[in-house]
Amino acid sequence: MNRTVFFVSESTGITAETLGHSLLTQFDSVHFEQVYMPYINTELRAKALTQRMQEAADRDGARPIVFATMLNEDIRNILKAGHCFYMELFEVFVGPLAEELGVMPSMQSGRSHAIIKPSFYTKRIEAINFAMANDDGIRPDNFERADVVLTGVSRSGKTPTCLYLAMHYGLRSANYPITEEDFERGDVPQILYDCKHKLFALTIDPQRLQLIREERRPGSTYASLKRCHDDIRIAQQMFKRLQVPVLNTTTQSIEEISSQIVKALKERQEGRPLELTEMGGAAGR
Which sites bind ADP (predicted)? Predict the structure, then answer.
């Protein structure tokens, strides 16, 4: 089954896309052609979009699905009149919430991604710069300034996780890749032991790691399955010696890994003991 989905907004459309995409993931048997349509903020643009909806309906043999965050009632009515299944996300949630709170909503578009709290926005920018400047163990002397430090074998997901933690949580994140020298020595540098209170290890299934490394260096020893098995096995021994939480990136997304890290950091701040067993799988065992 093929269905076209439009994410529509009079502003950026990020909210419509994020929530709409989350709902679509529950329907694995359907192939969705996703169309991103921000800034539909005039009646002319809305009418042009209804023509695209009709074209999609003719092509798919079924009306398109529209996830919208449209506060302008006139534009909303134009879209609703088109040949589509229209879901107004603000209409679904804002009305009941306003009734519960007893407060009328502002009904201003773009507020969810506007710079409403400049201090936190500045913190996020600084965190992103920190993550980029402290990638791949470039500045281990900066680890003491980091909010969180990640370690793991090459291509286990350290860099994208650090950037996500910076962008979405404003956390200064650094990472240290386990090097050839570390494998030969059988241990990580003392600097990681010194910051173990904010250290998390990432692991990954050797087969998955082999596929990732093969894309980077096809046919190399670095990408061989044996090398991947050996790297993960030795790294697991190091993690056990470090006694830090281990998160498995094989099937977990960056978002899931990051949320677990943030949760663990909060538990540390509250003085609650952390679970040191591997979280999210049993890769490398």
Answer: 152-159
Nearby residues of 213 by Cβ (< 8 Å), 6 or more positions away = 154, 155, 220, 222, 223, 228
Q: Tell me, yes or no, whether 29 and 92 share the same domain.
A: yes
pLDDT in tens, 226-272: 999 999 999 999 999 999 999 999 999 999 999 999 999 998 887 76
Residue positions in the annotated binding site for ADP?
A: 152-159
Q: How many domains does the chain divide into?
A: 2
* Residues 143 and 246 grouped into a single domain: yes
Residue 6: inside a domain, yes or no?
yes
Question: pTM surpassing 0.85?
Answer: no
In a domain, 82, yes or no: yes
pLDDT over threshold 80, residue 148? yes
- Please give the residue range of the domain that contains residue 43: 2-113
Claim to verify: residue 172 and residue 247 sit in the same structural domain: yes
**Residue-wise pLDDT tens digits, 6-17:** 999 998 888 899
User: Closest Cα to residue 18, out of 3, 1, 4, 38?
Assistant: 38
Q: Do residue 127 and residue 221 come from a single domain? A: yes
Measured in whole angstroms, the distance separating CA 8 from the mean position of its chain's CA atoms is 22
> Per-residue pLDDT tens for 75-125?
999 999 999 999 998 888 888 888 888 988 776 666 665 556 778 888 989
Partner residues linked to 201 by β-bridges: 151, 246
